[in-house]
Amino acid sequence: MAGHSHFSPSNVEEHFEFTAEGRKRVIFAFLAGLVALVVGIYLLSRGDHEAAHAVAEHGAEHGEHLSGGAVAHHGDYDWTNRIWANLWLNGVFFTGISVIGMFFVSIQYLAKAGWSSVVKRVAEAFPPFLVVTGTVLILVFLFKGDVIFHWMHHGITDKGSEHYDKIIAGKSGYLNKWFFLGRMVTFFALWLVLWNWMRKKSLEEDLNGGNENFYSMVKIATGFIVVMGISSSMSAWDWVMSIDTHWFSTMFGWYMFSSWHVTGLATITLTVLLLKDKGYMQYVNFNHLHDLGKFMFAFSIFWTYVWFEQFLLIYYANFPEETIYFLERWEGHNKIYKATEIMNVVFNFFFPFLILMTRDAKRTAIFLKIACSFIIVGHYLDFYQMIMPGTLGPNGGFGLVEFGMVTVFASAFIYVVSTQLTKASLVAKNHPFLEEALHHDI
Amino acid sequence: MDSTERYLVGVFDDDEEVLHAVTEVKNSGVKIEEVYTPFPIHGLDVAIGHPRTRIPIAAFLFGCLGLTCIFSLINYTMVFDWPMIIGGKDFFALPDWIPVSFEGTVLFTAFGMVGTFLVSNSLWPGKQPRTFDLRSTDDRFIMAVNMANNKKTEAEIESILRASGAIEVNVKQF
């Protein structure tokens, strides 16, 4: 029941304090991740020679025809590739979480939704992290792009070269270094500019009240949805699908977007729950959490739908140039990606589906937290199996490098978001629908 | 009809008022059968104390039934009765069956829930509707009290209803 009648928009202002203790913990996690990463890199560099031999032998019999990516076609694997592939993986994954913060706010404004006005400041705090992931992705692309992308290999589009590949040369009008870089910079710039604009209006509303800023934000949100509709698909083709350059899927834009979206929703929900645990946001009641839970439940199923449709079409048509994508992950590379592929469906479909099915579960913090954790870890694995087989092939694995890198990114994300949360009231106190949200009851 | 059911019907003219009245009337020890309103009032079902609907359980069971039926049908036709090779796959090509099984589950669930809803609300064809007060579709809020469920006298209940804000109290028999 909505029993919070003693809150009124004039007295709900609340400020998050990023305490010295909290700061210390996040920095400690960052350093622990960094240590794990450095130790992992050191171990990799030592094991380099033995591994290289093993790969050379296996590659001849196994990897060669079950890889659509860069590795099997070119024997030039270097142990440092694993670092760049991991940077790329985490960059893409955290870009998704950050940009979905803006996307969530935008759909709420476009729909003129009332209930979400109590949680919108949390989602609004995610996009600043795009500065970090954007920098990482652009630098990795500029300096180590050929490690990630098969189409960037030297001489692959030169007719005279021994590496010449007719199919990739045919795609070079779209997949070439400068056009790709231009798209990447444009997307990040558009996302950040629109977010900044939205944020400015949001803070103005806190100061001045009135409905004017609300209508401006509806317009910005509409613009962002259009931008996101195009950029989410194109970034999926560019950043992830083009790793397996010969392969393509018309479902891929939706597939990656749905993965981003549900991860973003889970991160928003988890952040709200953790803030509630710390005593903030007491005006967020179980009706709001129920709505967030429904969002996660629905978009987990949406992800499954898209994932399965992509699989089914390829399975049914049975074209070798398409089935290679799944064969590579299911039985290629000495089956090192098979476990991830299974966990992908179990974590991202069965667990959220079963955990969040009942109404009571969606209204119970602990169930929501479990579901959020599975979704976030599961979609990290989803991106892992999208990116790693094509970039690392038989040299991939899950070790200290992966663990360290994701910890470093996650703690940096928490630091940036927490800092952003301190900059404004946790509740948009002059949001025209705030009163409605405070009495939300479903 | 061999037995008549006797109801006291309180008529209210404000949605906030009827919501408070429900709690007051209940606290005075009167059992409320149902409240009829022209539009949904948030929190009214909780205030009356209605148990949560069990229709999701029916939905789940109908879904299981649908899945079983459709799956058995495909399995019988495609594997046992007239095995067919489609796209070079096994007879038992599970991924191909998932969309149809899903649709069958949804179909059975939808029809099953509509049926359950109609039956549990006594809305089968030819059923004469019980209308306590026609104005509950316009601008009045109607609180029905079944006399059979209450030990208090009619006069006592009527005064409780009036004290909690009813503008009229009528007797209705079915």
UniProtKB/TrEMBL annotation, chain A:
Q: Where are the transmembrane segments?
A: 26-44, 87-110, 122-143, 178-197, 218-240, 252-275, 295-316, 336-357, 364-381, 396-417
Q: Which UniProt keywords apply?
A: Membrane, Transmembrane, Transmembrane helix
Keyword set includes Transmembrane:
yes
Name the source's superkingdom: Bacteria
Q: Which PANTHER family match?
A: PTHR43044, QUINOL:CYTOCHROME C OXIDOREDUCTASE QUINONE-BINDING SUBUNIT 2
Q: What is this protein called?
A: Quinol:cytochrome c oxidoreductase quinone-binding subunit 2
TrEMBL record, chain B:
Name of the protein in question: Uncharacterized protein DUF3341
Entry's PANTHER family? Answer: LIPOPROTEIN-RELATED (PTHR40394), QUINOL:CYTOCHROME C OXIDOREDUCTASE MEMBRANE PROTEIN (PTHR40394:SF2)
InterPro entries hit by this protein: ActD
**TM helices/strands, residue ranges:** 57-77, 97-120
Lineage in the entry? Bacteria, Pseudomonadati, Bacteroidota, Cytophagia, Cytophagales
Classify the source by domain of life.
Bacteria
Q: Which UniProt keywords apply?
A: Membrane, Transmembrane, Transmembrane helix
